[in-house]
Design brief:
Distance between the termini: 14 Å
Strand order of the largest sheet: 6-5-4-3-2-1-14
Structural class: alpha/beta
CATH class: Alpha Beta
Helix content: 10-25%
Radius of gyration: 18 Å
Order of helices and strands: EEEHEHHEHHEEEEEHEHEHEE
CATH topology: Metallo-beta-lactamase, Chain A
Number of strands: 14
Number of helices: 8
Largest sheet: 7 strands, mixed
Strand content: 25-35%
Amino acid sequence: MNRYSIHGIFLGTGTSQGVPVIGCECAVCHSSDSRDKRLRTAFFLDVDGVHLVIDAGCDFRQQMLTNNITSLDALLITHEHKDHLAGLDDIRPFNFMRHEAMPIFAEQRVVDAIKREYSYVFAEHPYPGSPMMNVQTITEEPFEYEGITIQPLRVLHLNLPIFGYRIGQFAYITDASSIPPETMALLEGVECLVINSLRFEPHYSHFCVSQVLEIIQTLQPKQAYLTHCSHSMGFYAETSKILPPNVFLAYDGLKIDL
């Protein structure tokens, strides 16, 4: 597996509802610690100067502005749920800056969903000012983009097959509830693993803490970060204290370097 210089930013680390949850009166949702405020899950990668974002959910615009991201080369999409796709219209400023369509990589089912949900983009005569999308279909095979090798990682979100991604020594998985053996093999040797952990209690379609810690124990990355966290994960400051030394609870705006 190739090695790259990787700089990452957690753009969002929350579930489809985010944290705080609308109308929730729990202590975590009313926390004054900024690390307990979670936008919908997304991640920024600078890989040897190539700028990628994994998923463009409802908070995409806010995430770009908050993190001062003014350059974006391509999007990698994990699956078609709204908290991962609903912000695609906001790629327009990058279209205007680049003077070209944004490359968007996704598997065929997700490509079909994008074309359906953003039909005004793909019409014979697109609505003036519409975003420009260069949607490209990928499979489970590795592919190249701007000299970077990207390995899609097949995982299951309950019964829905979705993608995580591995780039060099870094891997990103969100919304998973199980990882097939063949994907575990593709994760061997990963040094930095980002993986979803919804809460402490088991959940039907997302990993819980104990399941994720088992996976981390098997893979033995140098560092692992938990993302896609609900308010049930508790306070950042308290939960962080009980995790193993190489496992970290991610928060919005956290930066990592490999």
